[in-house]
Amino acid sequence: ELYSLMAHYFVLLTIFPSSIWIPAVFISGVMTAFIVTPTHQSDAFFHEEQSDWVAAQFQSTRNAVLTNPFSTWLWGGMQYQLEHHLFPSMPRSKYPTLKPILEKFALENGLEYFESG
Predict the structure, then answer these.
(1) Are the CB atoms for 95 and 61 separated by under 8 Å?
(2) What DSSP element (H or E) covers 99?
(3) Residue 61 pLDDT more than 90?
(4) pLDDT digits (tens, 9 = 90+) for 95-104
(5) Which of 25, 67, 80, 110 could form a cystine bridge with 95, CB 3.0-4.6 A?
(6) Spatial separation of the C-alpha atoms in residues 35 and 20, rounded to whole Å
(7) What is the predicted pLDDT for the residue at 4?
(8) Residues 6+ away with beta carbon under 8 Å from 74
(9) How far is residue 25 from each of residues 32, 54, 63, 79, measured CA to CA in Å?
(10) For position 55, what pLDDT does the model report?
(11) Are 1 and 41 in contact (CB under 8 A)?
(12) Percentages helix, strand, coil for the chain, rounded to the nearest 5?
């Protein structure tokens, strides 16, 4: 993945003029904000005592429910925010496999698996 990103930015910065890549970087930043913000909105506030780290992730993170392949492609795996927060170094392609395991874990441990969309 690192080499793909390096190749991407090499092509972007050397072949395309700045009038192309500056708006592209800006638009990708806005798209990232639109993707990340809804999945980090939570009703959980930790005033005095915070639950253990895993429970806190379940309480403060929600996944996005997507309805079409284009949205799934656009979000690039970030619709699985809980999976991402619990296992940040796991490849994004594994998140769909992990989801039912975490749903079962939540059910068995009295945690709520939040999804919206």
Answers:
(1) no
(2) helix 95-108
(3) no
(4) 999 999 999 9
(5) 80
(6) 23
(7) 92
(8) 31, 35
(9) 10, 34, 25, 21
(10) 86
(11) no
(12) 65, 5, 35
Per residue in 27-56, pLDDT (tens digit) is 888 887 877 776 666 665 656 666 688 888
Span 55-82, average pLDDT: 85
Which of 39, 114, 52 lies closest to 81, judged by CA? 39
**Predicted local distance difference test score (pLDDT) of residue 50:** 66
Burial code (b: 16+ CB inside 10 Å, e: under 16) for 12-45 equals eeeeeeeeebeeeeeeeeeeeeebeeebeeeeee
Mode of pairing for the β-strands spanning 63-64 and 115-116: parallel
Q: Is 116 helix (H, G, I), strand (E, B) or coil?
A: strand
pLDDT average, residue stretch 55-78: 84
Q: Could you tell me which of 78, 77, 81 has the C-alpha nearest to residue 60?
A: 81
